[in-house]
């Protein structure tokens, strides 16, 4: 994986233009590996008439058959025996509806280098110790979800003085403990050390709303940050405008919007997207995005709305080099952002099939709820 | 948002309002009563406003297909004529007038009068849009004081309707309390449950189980649980139009309603006949599905992704794609006869069920039975209708009418208004 190694050692994490040739080479290298190692993937490529040898230019990236995330939810696709994988991560859907993706040690190594480079953008790595408030699942041996892992991972950017979890595992299930977290926030606001929030935007929002309703206001120590990741999950209906979120954070926690950082990523595309100071997601050098026409699946030009197809040569253990998400998004010219970065920006507009469905058929509500996770 | 005594309050006032709710309710019970006429008048005026288009903006913002169709149904059902008809059907004429009994064998007579049950707590765990308001109206018609707990995913529809009703008829305000308490606020839920004589619950198994835990012993539980429905085919009267109507029903209700067809039963014990039916019916379902594709980017993306995934699936596994499946709809033939939920969204199960096994098979699902869409030759209809009655079904209709609402219909085998009243004997 010499090309991958080179790509993930690129100094400028957002130089998509300068790394284009390298990216294509690394994709071809990865594609060859998957073709050899994963029989299902080989059958797909053969059936679609695509050979790894074809992967030589930018246009070929759009022709490379992509795999919808749905496929990973139905099949466990591996390109090597499980014994060679260091970690297996699942998406946060409940059983039967989640993807399981494997990572080797070298995959994780590439990932770690990427995380450190990307997170530099918002100066997340620091030696100043912090108190962490994690709006995610408290790690438990029954929980393999990537969200748990990344949320915990994010508490490693600085030395952690404490970690408070909002979702507590009790009697076989996770339940939110917002009151407990609120007490912790008030306590930590008096500390000398910064506080960092990490986790689902929905829970962070609920907490701030709860504090606002109760009239609780704190000013967190200088350098405190709110890091958001994992999407809105089942709370799509509650999704708020970003500016409302930022105003609330300033009013209730005293955290200004330049200290609010949002992440984006998926088990099936584990490249870390981190928003810039203007809160846009620039595509990192380790990833490419193709927006496709929802009907014809043909690639669309910048500025068009369509299905989001994500590409990366990061992982060898599973064939996730080109995955199609359930998200509708737009790719825009990054130089118009004004933050200084020039790589294209990705805006996620929503997920297909996320309507608020009402039902009175016996057993249907539970199934629909699961399907939405 | 909270409504109490006709005024709107912020959610954070909940505990304060709950703390004096008991006193307020006792005062209303002691001094006031509500006649059906007052309620009918208010609902009829509301109906006029809907007809004039005052709610059009709200209705068109709802995430439902065919909002206009539902609006027309609502206009019919909310009219004075319909409500009077409902009252007469469910409670009989002059239900609330008292009378003296004339018992046989010279036993002593006494007086009989009908009264509201008292206080009803309505809990609707997300169901059909506007359902909370509908449930409340039934409680008002029978003169009850109503505490309504809104479902968490409620769009403003119910609150808007209720506020409008109170504006039309301020006399209603003593009889209406609306809270948006989340189900997780156990203390508040318990407080409300303690104040009521009956709990009217709309929801699935999980919601029913939670409320049973919460309800004080002796409180009347009125559960409108989630149900399952199916079609039964034993010959035809007019095959083409009947299959067409069944296909339209499946596609338009998407398997989401209590009355939506989940399984198509074929009167046979031979699985070949099930497959033969699928072969014949699939083109009907496909063309109905094509007619009803919503023109949104969402729907298109979903369909093309499903098509693409099916193609990959076939390549990966080397298996032919499932036989009666397209990106729009599916028939899933199965050899067992169990009544179960389908995959919904135009995917429906097809199973054998010989008529002599109808009762033993359906009894296994007795708590969930609702509608059968019966397609059969005319000479079999009476016998099969009788069998389904004995099996526990409560709506036996033609296939295309499975989800139709009609004036004066019973609800899941009951007249709801009868459950919201009590009979007092006195001397």
Fold and architecture overview:
The complex is a heterodimer of chains A (373) and B (427). By secondary structure, chain A is an alpha/beta fold. Chain A folds into two domains: 2-113 and 281-351, Rossmann fold (3-Layer(aba) Sandwich); 122-264, Rossmann fold. Chain A has eleven helices and 15 strands. In chain A, the strands form three sheets. In chain A, strands 6-5-4-7-8-9-10 form a seven-stranded mixed β-sheet. In chain A, strands 1, 11, 12, 13, 14 and 15 form a six-stranded mixed β-sheet that branches. Chain A has a two-stranded antiparallel sheet with strand order 2-3. In chain A, α2 (20-37) packs across α3, α8 crosses α9 and α9 crosses α10 (242-253). Chain A starts with a helix and ends with a helix. Residues 233-237 of chain A have low confidence and may be disordered. By secondary structure, chain B is α/β, with parallel strands linked by helices. In chain B, the strands form three sheets. Chain B has a seven-stranded mixed β-sheet, with helices on both faces. In chain B, strands 12-13-11-10-14-15 form a six-stranded parallel β-sheet. In chain B, strands 3-4-16 form a three-stranded antiparallel β-sheet. Chain B is globular, with a radius of gyration of 24 Å. Chain B starts with a strand and ends with a strand. Chains A and B meet through α3, β1, α5, β13 and β14 of A and α13 of B.
Output the keywords.
heterodimer, A: 373 residues, alpha/beta, Rossmann fold, 2 domains, 6-stranded mixed β-sheet, globular, B: 427 residues, Aldehyde Dehydrogenase, Chain A, domain 1, Aldehyde Dehydrogenase, Chain A, domain 2, 7-stranded mixed β-sheet, 6-stranded parallel β-sheet, 16 helices, 16 strands
């Amino acid at each position: 994986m010499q090309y991958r190694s080179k790509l993930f050692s690129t100094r400028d994490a957002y130089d998509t233009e300068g790394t284009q040739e390298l990216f294509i080479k690394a994709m071809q290298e990865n594609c060859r590996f998957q073709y050899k190692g994963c029989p299902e993937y080989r059958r797909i490529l053969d059936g679609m008439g695509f050979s790894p040898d074809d992967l030589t230019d930018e246009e070929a990236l759009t022709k490379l058959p992509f795999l919808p995330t749905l496929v990973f939810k139905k099949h466990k696709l591996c390109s090597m025996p499980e014994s060679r994988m260091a970690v297996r991560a699942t998406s946060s859907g409940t059983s039967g509806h989640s993807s399981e993706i494997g990572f080797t040690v070298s995959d994780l190594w590439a990932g770690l280098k990427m995380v450190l480079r990307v997170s530099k953008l918002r100066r997340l790595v620091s030696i100043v110790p912090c108190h962490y408030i994690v709006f995610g699942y408290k790690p438990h041996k029954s929980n393999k979800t990537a969200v748990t892992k990344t949320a915990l991972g994010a508490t490693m950017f600085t030395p952690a003085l404490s970690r408070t979890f909002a979702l507590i595992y009790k009697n076989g299930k996770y339940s939110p403990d917002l009151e407990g977290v609120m007490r912790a926030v008030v306590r930590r606001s008096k500390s000398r050390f910064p506080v960092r929030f990490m986790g689902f935007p929905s829970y962070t929002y609920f907490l701030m709303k709860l504090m606002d309703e109760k009239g609780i206001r704190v000013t967190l120590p200088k350098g405190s940050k709110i890091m958001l990741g994992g999407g809105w999950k089942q709370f799509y209906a509650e999704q708020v405008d970003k500016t409302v979120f930022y105003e609330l954070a300033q009013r209730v926690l005293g955290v200004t919007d330049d200290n609010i950082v949002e992440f984006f990523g998926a088990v099936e595309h584990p490249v870390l997207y981190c928003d810039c100071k203007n809160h846009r997601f620039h595509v990192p050098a380790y990833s490419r995005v193709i927006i496709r026409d929802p009907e014809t699946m043909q690639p669309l030009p910048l500025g068009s709305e369509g299905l989001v197809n994500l590409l990366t040569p990061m992982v060898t253990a599973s064939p996730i080099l080109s995955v199609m998400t359930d998200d509708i998004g737009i790719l825009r010219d990054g130089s118009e952002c004004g933050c200084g970065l020039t790589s294209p920006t990705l805006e996620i507009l929503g997920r297909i099939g996320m309507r608020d469905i009402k039902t009175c058929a016996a057993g249907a509500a539970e199934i629909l709820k699961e399907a939405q996770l | 948002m909270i409504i109490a005594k006709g005024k709107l309050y912020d959610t954070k006032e909940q505990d304060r309002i709950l703390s004096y709710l008991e006193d307020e309710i006792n005062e209303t019970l002691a001094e006031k009563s509500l006649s059906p006429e007052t309620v009918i008048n208010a609902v009829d005026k509301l109906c006029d406003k809907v007809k004039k288009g005052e709610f059009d903006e709200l209705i068109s913002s709802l995430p439902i297909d065919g909002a206009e169709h539902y609006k027309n149904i609502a206009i019919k059902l909310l009219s004075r004529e319909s409500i009077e008809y409902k009252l007469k059907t469910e409670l009989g004429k002059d239900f609330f007038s008292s009378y003296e009994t004339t018992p046989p064998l010279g036993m002593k007579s006494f007086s009989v009068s009908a009264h509201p049950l008292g206080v009803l707590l309505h809990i609707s765990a997300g169901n059909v849009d506007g359902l909370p308001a509908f449930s409340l109206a039934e409680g008002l018609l029978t003169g009850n004081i109503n505490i309504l707990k809104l479902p968490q995913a409620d769009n403003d529809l119910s609150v808007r309707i209720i506020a409008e009703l109170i504006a039309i008829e301020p006399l209603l305000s003593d009889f209406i309390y609306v809270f948006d308490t989340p189900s997780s606020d156990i203390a508040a839920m318990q407080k409300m449950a303690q104040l009521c004589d009956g709990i009217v619950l709309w929801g699935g198994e999980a919601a029913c189980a939670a409320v049973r835990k919460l309800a004080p012993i002796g409180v009347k539980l009125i559960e409108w649980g989630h149900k399952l429905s199916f079609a039964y085919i034993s010959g035809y009267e007019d095959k083409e139009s009947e299959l067409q109507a069944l296909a339209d029903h499946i596609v338009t209700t998407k398997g989401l309603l209590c009355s939506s067809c989940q399984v198509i039963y074929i009167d046979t014990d031979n699985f070949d006949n099930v497959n033969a039916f699928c072969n014949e019916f699939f083109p009907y379902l496909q063309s109905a599905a094509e007619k009803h594709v919503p023109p949104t980017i969402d729907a298109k993306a979903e369909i093309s992704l499903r098509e693409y995934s099916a193609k990959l699936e076939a390549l990966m596994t080397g298996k032919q794609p499932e036989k009666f499946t397209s990106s729009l709809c599916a028939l899933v033939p199965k050899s067992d006869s169990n009544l179960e939920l389908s995959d919904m969204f135009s995917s429906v199960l097809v199973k054998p069920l010989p008529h002599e096994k109808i009762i033993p098979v359906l009894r296994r699902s007795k708590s969930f039975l609702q509608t059968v869409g019966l397609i059969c030759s005319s000479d079999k209809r009476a016998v099969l209708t009788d069998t389904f009655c004995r099996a526990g079904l409560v709506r036996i209709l033609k296939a295309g009418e499975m989800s139709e609402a009609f004036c004066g219909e019973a609800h899941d085998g009951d007249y709801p208004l009868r459950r919201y009243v009590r009979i007092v004997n006195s001397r």
